[in-house]
Design a protein that fits this description.
Layout: H1 2-5, E1 11-13, E2 33-35, H2 44-57, E3 68-74, E4 77-83, E5 86-89, E6 93-95, H3 101-106, E7 115-125, E8 138-140, E9 145-149, E10 155-159, H4 194-207, E11 215-226, E12 233-236, E13 243-247, H5 257-270, H6 284-288
Parallel strand pairs: 6-13
Antiparallel strand pairs: 1-2, 3-4, 4-5, 7-10, 7-11, 8-9, 9-10, 12-13
The structure holds flavin-adenine dinucleotide (FAD).
Length: 302
């Protein structure tokens, strides 16, 4: 339905057919399967560094390992940013500090309603010849568990912490429901705890029994900024300040980054944005209760 209308076109198939693509996949309990032949995985590190490299080719200067300590306004307009390597004067600030954004925003009197939340990933060594770097990613929507091969053929997997999807969550559910109210993003680092790793393992083995005994090679935790409606904030605040806050990835905004980049470029170049509806992503929506709702009721799947 909705996917076909935007030209994605997944093929529907009986769950038993999944094993043609993911060898040894067990389908009991599944009603229907959808397969998107042209889907692929983009490596997040390579994608981010490719964006940075292209920006540098176009004249940008990139300062890694440099912390912005404050945004400075003068007469309500951006003057520059303080960093741990000195002051940088600029006409615009694109403030995209993710889960750390509320601190810098508070310094200029802007309240960003985002909270940090974590997502865990586990890597298992499958030791099974049916699983290869060519195996498609699979996701079981019943337990919101996914697995995909990495470049070496390990199983990269994750799962929602809760047992079942909740219809009332609408789009905001699925992988995102583990967003806690913990205010400090720096507490999320290292590896997932044993219970989380065991849950992921159990759910992978449930669908792929050949993974029984697969060794946990490593795991890691990432942090993202969660908004109350699980959609991005794209907002110039204070109004007219030339400080554009772009945060609130809510566990699902890697894939949006090319589109968000287009929108930022247009907004900075022209002061407005036709590329996306800035009202829909405004800060005001949280005060007025007009939260973002997609055109269809569906979970965001990562
Ligand atoms: C395990 C995991 C799996 C995910 N899977 C998917 C997926 O399949 N699909 C999808 O679309 N999304 C996925 N996401 C979500 C996606 O990664 C995020 O939504 C996205 O990265 C948010 O981008 P961002 O630029 O807003 O924030 P971030 O990527 O968090 O970047 C913010 C950056 O700002 C830096 N920073 C913070 N404070 C300062 C400061 N004071 N000075 C300088 N720099 C600062 C931080 O170091 C960080 O590099 C996943 C996330 C995780 C953790």
């Amino acid at each position: 339905g909705p996917q076909r209308r935007i030209g994605v076109g997944p093929e529907l198939m009986a769950p038993e057919e999944i094993s043609r693509y993911v060898p040894g996949f067990r389908a009991p309990g599944l009603a229907l399967a959808a397969f998107e032949r042209q889907a692929a995985v983009a490596d997040p590190h390579r994608t981010a560094t490719a964006f940075a490299a292209r920006a540098q080719e176009l004249g940008a200067r990139v300062y890694t390992g440099t912390a912005v300590t404050a945004i400075r306004l003068r007469d309500g307009r951006v003057e520059g940013v303080e960093t741990d390597r000195g002051f940088v004067r600029c006409e615009w600030v694109i403030h995209a500090a993710g889960a750390w954004a509320p601190r810098l925003a508070a310094g200029i009197g802007v309240d960003l309603p985002v909270k940090p939340g974590s997502l865990s990933v586990c890597a298992f060594d499958p030791r099974y010849e049916g699983w290869s770097t060519e195996t498609p990613t699979w996701m079981d929507l019943d337990t919101v568990t996914y697995a995909r091969p990495d470049a070496r053929g390990l199983i990269i997997a994750g799962s929602d912490h809760d047992q079942k999807g909740d219809e009332d969550d609408g789009e905001a559910g699925a992988l995102n429901r583990s967003a806690p109210a913990e205010p400090d993003p720096d507490v999320y680092h290292g590896a997932p705890d044993d219970l989380t790793a065991a849950l992921v393992y159990e759910r992978i083995v449930d669908r792929c029994p050949w993974a029984e005994g697969a060794r946990l090679v490593r795991g890691w935790i990432g942090v993202d900024a969660y908004t109350p409606d699980y959609h991005l904030i794209f907002a110039e605040a204070p109004a007219g300040s030339r400080c554009l806050h772009v945060t609130g990835g809510s566990g699902n905004s890697f894939k949006l980054s090319p589109a968000v980049g287009e929108a930022v470029a247009e907004y900075v170049a022209s002061g407005s944005c036709t590329y996306l509806d800035t009202q829909a992503f405004s800060l005001e929506r949280f005060a007025t209760g007009r939260l973002f709702r997609g055109a269809y009721r569906m979970h965001i799947l990562g």
